[in-house]
Records
---
Amino acid sequence: MSLSPLALRVLQGLGALWTAPNTLIGLIGGLAGMVAGARPSWNRRDLAIVFRDWPWGPGGAITLGNVILHTGPVLDVACRTYAHQAGHCTEPVIGLHDHERAHVYQYLVLGPLYLPVYLVCGGVSARNPFERAADVYAMTGRGWWPGVP
């Protein structure tokens, strides 16, 4: 099933409203990071405000609604899948921006339910179906929702 561009934008707008509480958390984190040098920019492709050079965390990125907090200077970098890092399999590197875009899409669907559901599913781990779906999407451009090829 394919949606018209207008219908897709309407659904994305409704999803953005639905996940606004998560986006607000991301904006607060991003604004706090600006004091220490984080730089925001709108990324149309990822449907998110990306705060680059976010100063806290172990490295990488975290998505909160339509906000991506990234510790590096550019989001368009290669990274390993969670399953590869955990030693479950060998997979090619993926684009971090594609992985995080999948999480933005997931937030648009689940809205304020995303964080509790994500945590119940295992949090940041190779076992989490949301992380696996984001990795698959980053590898193939399809399947950003868990269990949907």
Note: The beta strands are 39-43, 48-52, 61-64, 67-70, 78-79, 94-95.
---
Amino acid sequence: MTLDATDKKLLFILQSDSKKTTKELSLKLNLSVTAVYERIKKLEREGIIDKYVVLINRSKVEKGFVVFCHLKLIQHTKEFIAKFESEVIQLKEVIECHHVSGDYDYILKIVVKDMEAYREFLVTKLTTLQHIGSTHSTFMISEVKNTTIVDI
């Protein structure tokens, strides 16, 4: 699907605030409510709009301690990778997991209450997963930029 300027503007607005009504969007885009509705439905059908979510202020729910954990597997066989990925998906503290190139195999973004909670997570959950060779943890000092907006 080719996106025109109106689609791009609509997507930017929705990424900034997906709770805007079709009426509010129609005023910003100079389109009818029906035209806006149809564009949104088309973007959803095409899979460009994947889902709608609520972003939580982590510190308000005692999940303000952010850790980036670099992880190496002991082997890179298809079975080891599949097993690790299926296990790490089950860990609620892990909010992102990326298979990467370089010195490490994966980078995990982990959110917990504090250092003590991270130690407990590391000892009782993460390091009990099979096939992990080593880990290296980096702790967030402050968040300089965190956005979900993709520039199109």
Note: The chain has two domains: 5-46, 58-139.
